[in-house]
Amino acid sequence: MSEPDPPEQERPDRDPPKQERPDRDPPEQEQVRQAVERSRSGAPAVGAVVRDRFSADEVFQRIVAAADEEVTSGSRELFFSGIAAGFAITITVLLYASLYGETGGHPILSALLYPLGFIYIIIGGYQLYTENTLPPVALTLERIASLPALLRHWTIVLAGNFTGGAIGAAVLAWGGVFSPEAAEAARYLGTHGPETAWLDLFFKAAFAGLIVAGVVWVEYAARETVARIVIVYMAFLAIPIGNLFHVVTSFTEMAYVVFIGELSLYVGLVHFVLPVALGNTIGGILLVTVVNYFQTSERRLESARFEGTNRQLSLREWLFGSYAGRSYVPLIDTAEVSAVEDGETYRVLVPIANPRTESRIVDFAATLADAHENAVVHAVHIIQMPDRRSMRYGSDRNERIISESDRLMEGVRETIEPYDVECETSTVVSHRSFEDVFDTAERERADLVVLNWGDNQPWDAGHTEGRISKFTSDLPCDFLVLKDRDLDTSRILLPTAGGPDSDLSAEVARTLEQADGSDVNLLHVVKNPEDRAEGRTFLANWAAEHDLENAELTIDATGDVEKAICREAADSSLVIIGATESGLLSRLVRDSLHMDVVNEVDSSVLLAERPSNGNILKRLLGRP
Question: Within this chain, do residues 419 and 528 fall inside the same structural domain, yes or no?
């Protein structure tokens, strides 16, 4: 019988005696660790399952993120992106016809390179009808975007696709790109569609729409670019193999045979392109988009939008868009939903990009509002989202943005507090900050908008280019646009030739005269010295009508308005200019306003424009 091992010769696999350590894991963690180590199969014995793919709700949120960027893009941006997609489809037609001719129409080999143009489009982010136009349907179903906004997006993209496809087809037809075999194959492909029955085209296109819409959902569920490429390739390969039709490819094929004189344009459009377009659209929307939409949970919007369904468009807004109010709901908008009904309240809206640095314009707006009874100053912190899809949706992120914005707006509230006005603050996060200024003014029935203008503002010319469609209709209220150069209201220069915009300038000058004790200098320019007396009489009467009798009257007889303003501005700290020229505010937005008084004087400049019966588009074009 063997003796037990001595203590110093214990076997190495025996558990050492337990010792208490200050950093020892708690008993629960120790049990978990031991359970994992004891798992013989290698799989964890305890724990929770972590999904390695997106849920339906998460895919929906990613689609909403993409749709936000697309539905708020400018018309020019959409159109030229659509043209680029049309060019890419020309590559598909070129390769498909070439392989079709070389392989004798083999159903598999001829289609191997068909998806290449679609890969360029989707990976490159071009706008293609059916693929990029389906994500905005999710916004429309949720009543975040209106039907007119959706139709506008579709129309512009389809027009761009057709333009690019037509240019590419012209090059293929007249540029000698095709070999004889490829040219014959392209002629066959272009005439095969019109020879197919109308209903057959429609249902074949509907299945193609199903495939494309499925690509949208599956693509946004993919995590890697390689996976996206494989998905796009396999999906679009099914279109030629299944003898299906895509509207942009069909249009390009049709345009080719029209250019070589084998088909009339009317027959090609009515008997080929039209049924394919309808089939793609209806198939994509009804068969996939709506089905996938309803498979997500009812709480999907709560994580994709601030306050979820409480921020949806009204039924009238959803049907008629901007004609009935808003056409789009921003990502975040913390303002009260209901519009102000009290007609006795004077509301001043102040859009702010950086609450830390824009205290002067807030103080200026509060000064103007303080001259009215029952005045409300609403400061809106507008956050411009980047054009790229970097916004990740979620209620937690929304709350963090709102909390940080509210902290920054505390200084704004302190600026307004000394005045006898009510203060409101809110936050708007959107891809289209400039248009949201107008939407907020319309929704809240603002009486005045005070806007700070500068290179660092999200609504300057560089950010708003292509997004000024709001100026094609009347302004919602009075607008004051300030070019702030260390704002000082002690010495005011007010040039006037009469008109409603000069009336607004006079109201501002009178308020500053009474509130800040400002010295006001009224300037009127006449064509020649003989008109001095008449000009002085006009200016004196105008001053009396606007309660500015204490103002200094200056008559300039040079006939050059801009030079006269520049000369007088040298002794002024603030120049107030009414929009006596057609579309002054609109031209400022377009960065096409090059008045010396705006760009070269050292003092601050305040541009004033009042709504008129004629719309801004007519004024921009110089029409009565």
Answer: no
123: part of which helix (H) or strand (E)?
A: helix 116-124
* Nearest C-alpha neighbor of 346 from the set 426, 414, 422: 422
User: What is the C-alpha to C-alpha distance for residues 438 and 214, in angstroms, rounded to an integer?
Assistant: 37
N- to C-terminal Cα distance for the chain? 120
DSSP for 548-589, please give it.
-TTSEEEEE-SS-HHHHHHHHHTT-SEEEEE--STTHHHHHH
Is 368 exposed, middle or buried (CB count within 10 Å of its CB: 0-12, 13-18, 19+)? buried
Cα separation of 53 and 56, whole Å? 10
Amino acid residing at 134:
L
Decide if pLDDT at 542 tops 60: yes
How is the beta sheet containing 519-525 ordered, strand by strand?
Answer: 332-333, 422-430, 375-384, 346-352, 448-453, 478-483, 604-609, 574-578, 491-495, 519-525, 552-556
Asked if residue 150 lies in contact with residue 319, where contact means CB atoms within 8 angstroms, the answer is no
Question: Are residues 224 and 133 part of one domain?
Answer: yes
The answer to whether the pTM exceeds 0.85 is no
Query: Residue 293 has which token pair?
Result: 């939409």
* Per-residue DSSP letter, 51: -
Q: Coil, strand, or helix at residue 174?
A: helix
Mean pLDDT, range 43-69, rounded to an integer: 65
The last residue of one of the domains, among 467, 497, 519, is: 467
Helix (H, G, I), strand (E, B) or coil at 494: strand
Separation CA 135–CA 220 (nearest Å)? 10
Q: How far apart are CA 455 and CA 587, in angstroms?
A: 16
Phi, psi of 128 (to 5 degrees): -120, 130
**Assigned token pair, 303:** 């994580």
Q: At what angle do helices 198-221 and 56-71 cross, to 10 degrees?
A: 110
* 127 token code pair: 């706008």
- Full residue range of the structural domain in which residue 106 is found: 56-300
- 459 touches 351 (CB < 8 A): yes
Residue 230 lies in a domain: yes
CB 357 within 8 A of CB 487: no
Quick one: 462 and 499 in the same domain?
Answer: no
SS3 248: helix
What does the radius of gyration of the chain's CA atoms come to, in whole angstroms? 33
Give domain status of residue 40, yes or no: no
The rounded percent of the chain whose pLDDT value lies above 70 is 72
Convert the pLDDT of each residue in 548-558 to its tens digit. 999 999 998 88
Stretch 182-193: mean pLDDT, rounded?
Answer: 94
Beta-strand relationship, 552-556 and 519-525: parallel
Residue 504: pLDDT over 70:
yes
Digit-coded pLDDT (tens) for 270-303: 999 999 999 999 988 876 666 666 766 555 455 4
Nearest-angstrom CA–CA distance, 447 and 365: 12
Question: Is the distance from CB of 131 to CB of 121 less than 8 angstroms?
Answer: yes
3-state secondary structure 1-23: CCCCCCHHHCCCCCCCCCCCCCC
